[in-house]
Amino acid sequence: MPRMDQTFDHVIVGAGSAGCVLANRLSADGRASVAVIEAGGRDRHPYIHIPAGYARILDHPRLTWRFRTEPDAATGGRALDYPRGRVWGGSSSINGLGHVRGHPSDYDLWAQKGCTGWGWDDLLPYFMRHESFAGGGEGRGTSGPQPIEHLAETPDLLREFAAAAEAIGLPVNADMNGPRREGFSTFQQTRRGQRRVSAARAYLVPALSRPNLQVVSDAMALRVVVQEGRAVGVLVRRNGEETLLRARFGVVLSAGAIGSPHLLQLSGIGPGDELAAHGIAPVLDAPGVGRNLQDHYIARLTFRLTDHRWSANRRIVWPRLAIEVLRWATTGKGVLTWSPGMMSLFARTQDGLEAPDVQINGGPISWAEGRIGVPESEPGFTLGVWQCRPHSRGSVMLKSPRAEDAPAIAPRFLTERADEDCVVRGMRLARRWMAAEPLRGIVAGEVRPGPAAESDEALLAFAKATGGTVYHPSCTVRMGGDPGVPLDARLRLRGINGLRVVDASVFPDIPVCNINATVLSVAEKAAVLIAEDMRG
């Protein structure tokens, strides 16, 4: 732990995807001193590094924050699990390994909202900078810190899915992150060989030998300390002792779309009425902090297969699982290299759209009662349907003035009619795809919601009663050209000098896909912006 009087050039809160990128890039020249504060510990748990281990650690009491959402009538009055990583690598250490770029129009829309320098042409170099994709190809990076690989094993069922996609008029793409995003493709993973490569392994661990970088683990950030309108450091608690880590140049919050707005509010930066209700004296009345929460809501459909040879359900339980463990250890293949999304179908369900409005993911495993980690005894597979650009907006707000207490997370899923309509269209597309000629004799029928759910009303009721998050919270401390938006286009908090936010919370709007690749790219660009400002 640094001494009470120790000062750094940069103090970063959070060793998740963005924080790891910043720690590496800002300390690379050997001159700037960097401290990274992480509430969790080192990524030593073995399930982190086994790709399929995600199913066992999504709600781990030590590796995650174990967040729950506020119950909402629009999703059956349920409090949903809301996993966020609390470990080196953050959520990149517990996620499904999917590496997916957004549609170019996602980022061009950001630029149109006043985020100068954040259009697709501006961000593409940063996508390429972080990638190490051996497959290469147009616009792909081949020498970055983050390894990206195709699936180690492509199940036979996925080949039949590809043929079925073509049968309903959708293209099949060899590279899901290539020039064409619409259509069917197999996933790419943040993996090297048999092991997950989180942002911690890609960026943070290689930089640990630098004397100008310190990682302060198992430390709870209590608040950003602001003096005379400037962020001067972060107060942390570790082993029961409070310490102020001072920042010469600036503080960067990379605690994620839940943690960053929460810490700002604990620091007196946020909606003044919300702060006052918890006895926190406002340092800056910033109504947009914690608002605009966006996430992808997923409805999972289960289908029965005619034969176990198409499904992995029996392969992931003992005693057959022992064979898979040995296979993973000796060849780097098998079901332990799998992730929840093995393939993806991007499609437009309405005419006139500039980008896909539905994404369907899945693989040849089906879960009993939809519970991830508990496979069905019969052969099956799961398809998850979600709307790419939801209209519903939620919030992250204080529940108490204590940093240890989770905030009130209210995604407000399916509170807009357009979102309800889109999820129904997506479920109907999934059914049409599974009924295509190439899958006859392979797909035996639909189990959940089942053929009795035929009307739009029945499908929507199923989605509301059983769906959940895809783990993509974002947009809660957004950037933009409007002076009322929390951040400017250089990710600086308006109204407080020396304070930036760099993580998924800065997105003006959620991209059409899984978000980790975009977070890495935003952090790569942010590191350049910070270095430029430091040089003056």
Query: Helix proportion of residues, in percent?
Result: 25-40%
User: Kindly state the mean pLDDT as a whole number?
Assistant: 96
Major beta-sheet overview: 7 strands, mixed
Could you tell me how far the N terminus lies from the C terminus, measured between alpha carbons in angstroms? Answer: 31 Å
Number of helices: 13
Under the CATH scheme, which class of the largest domain?
Alpha Beta
Radius of gyration: 22 Å
| CATH topology annotation of the largest domain | FAD/NAD(P)-binding domain
Q: Any low-confidence stretches, pLDDT <50, length ≥5?
A: none
What is the number of beta strands?
26
Q: Report strand %.
A: 15-25%
> Shape from CA axes?
globular
Class from helix and strand fractions: alpha+beta
Say which CATH homologous superfamily of the largest domain is assigned: FAD/NAD(P)-binding domain
